[in-house]
Amino acid sequence: MGFTPNVLAQSMHSRRTGTVGLITDDLEGRFSLPILMGAEDAFGAHRTSVFLCDGRGDPIRESHHLKALIGRDVDGLIVVGARPDARASLSHQVPVPVVYAYAPSQNPNDLSVVTDNVQAGKLVGDHLVALGIRHIVHIAGDATYSAAQERHRGVVEALRAHDLSLASPTMFGSWTETWGRAATRSLLEGSADVDAIIAGSDRIARGVLEAAQQRGLRIPEDIAVASFDNWEPLVSGAQPPLTSVDFGFKLIGRRAAQLLSQALDGPPPAHLVETVGPRLVIRESSAGA
Q1: Residues 105 and 84 reside in one and the same domain
Q2: How far apart are CA 121 and CA 106, in angstroms?
Q3: Could you tell me which of 164, 169, 171 has the C-alpha nearest to residue 129?
Q4: At 98, phi and psi to the nearest 5?
Q5: pTM of the prediction?
Q6: Residues 224-247: pLDDT tens digits?
Q7: Is 79 left (phi over 0), alpha (psi -120 to 50) or beta?
Q8: Which residues lie across from 24 on neighbouring strands?
Q9: How many C-beta neighbours within 10 Å does residue 176 have?
Q10: Are residues 29 and 141 in the same domain?
Q11: How do the residues of the chain divide into helix, strand and coil, expressed in percent and rounded to 5?
C-alpha cells in the first residue's frame, strides 16, 4: 500500500538508529574501502547504514569525527587502522560498542579482527619452493611496521622448513615503487644468485618488475615475483599480472560488522581477537616459473 516505516519512531522504540560509524586512517582506501564493503554486506540484511570518516592519521581530526558520530547516536563503531600495528583504544571514550579492524586495539578486552602476516609470508615461501625455486630474496617494506617484520619472519620460516635460507639478507625500505626499483637494481648488480624476488607489497613489486625487465630479464622464466596485499589496480595491471597474498579485507569488514551486531544484541563474543587467514592468488608472475 506504499507504507514507509518512520525510522525515527522505530529508533525511539528499539533504542537503535540503524547507523554505524567507521573511522579510518587509511587515506588511499586500500584497506578501508573493501572493509567498508564487507561491513555493508553484513549489515545489509539488518538495514544498517555505515558512515565513513577519515581521520587522516590526525588524533584531533579523529576525536572530532568520534564526537560527531556519537552526536548522531550511532549504534556502534568500527575503527580501521592504516597499518596492522596495535593502536590506542577508543572504547573508554564512547558509550557504544567498538570493533577494531585490521589494526587491533592495545586493550586486550576490546574486540578486534586482524590479519596473519606470518602465515602470509609462509604461503609465498612455500609456493616458490614448490616451483623448484631455491635462490629467493626478499625486498621488504618499512622495518618499523609489524607487517614488514612478520612477513619476513613467515618467509624465513617457510624456507627453513625446506632446509633453505634467503639468498641474501632481507632489504627493508619504504612501501613504494621507487624503493622496489632501487632495491632490485642494487640486488641484480651484486653477486647474489637470484631466481625469485618476494616483494613486501604490490606497490614494491611493481618497481621490482620494472627494474628486472629493464635489465632484459623475463618474468617469471628468469626471475619469479610474488608480493602481498592483492590490491586489484596494481596486481591485474602489472605486466605480467602479479602473484599476491589476499588478506581478505572484505571478510575482515564482514566479521567486524557481525561482531559489532553481536555486541549490540548481548554479551561480547568469547574470542576477543579474531584472525582472518590469508590466501595466495597465483598469477603469471610466478605461475610459469
Answers
A1: yes
A2: 24
A3: 164
A4: -130, 135
A5: 0.88
A6: 999 999 998 899 889 999 999 999
A7: beta
A8: 54, 80
A9: 16
A10: no
A11: 40, 20, 40
- Is beta strand 279-281 parallel, antiparallel or unpaired with respect to 243-246? antiparallel
Domains in the chain, number: 2
CATH number (domain holding residue 100): 3.40.50.2300
For residue 220, is the peptide bond before it cis, meaning its omega torsion is within 30 degrees of 0?
Answer: yes
Q: Is residue 288 part of a domain?
A: no
In a domain, 2, yes or no: no
Q: Are residues 235 and 252 in the same domain?
A: no
Interatomic CA distance for residues 139 and 180, integer angstroms: 7
Is residue 66 within 8 Å of 120, Cβ to Cβ?
A: no
Shared domain check, 76 and 49: yes
The set of residues, in sequence order, having a beta carbon less than 8 Å from that of 171 and lying 6+ positions away, is 137, 138, 139, 140, 183, 186, 187
Is residue 13 pLDDT above 60, yes or no? Answer: no
Range of the domain at 73: 7-115+248-277
Q: Do 234 and 281 touch, CB atoms closer than 8 A?
A: no
Three-class DSSP category at 188:
helix
Is 240 inside a domain boundary?
A: yes
Per-residue pLDDT of 20-45, as tens digits, reads: 999 998 767 788 889 999 999 998 85
Same domain, yes or no, for 12 and 77? Answer: yes
Sheet of 279-281: strands edge to edge?
136-139, 196-199, 224-228, 243-246, 279-281
- Looking at the fold, whether 37 and 81 belong to one and the same domain comes out as yes
Q: What angle do CA 18, 98, 104 make, to 5 degrees?
A: 140
Q: Where are the beta strands (DSSP E) in the chain?
A: 19-24, 49-54, 76-80, 98-102, 111-115, 136-139, 196-199, 224-228, 243-246, 273-276, 279-281
CA–CA distance from 168 to each of 20, 21, 122, 165, 198 (Å)?
Answer: 48, 46, 18, 8, 12
Length of the chain equals: 289
Residues 55 and 39 in one domain: yes
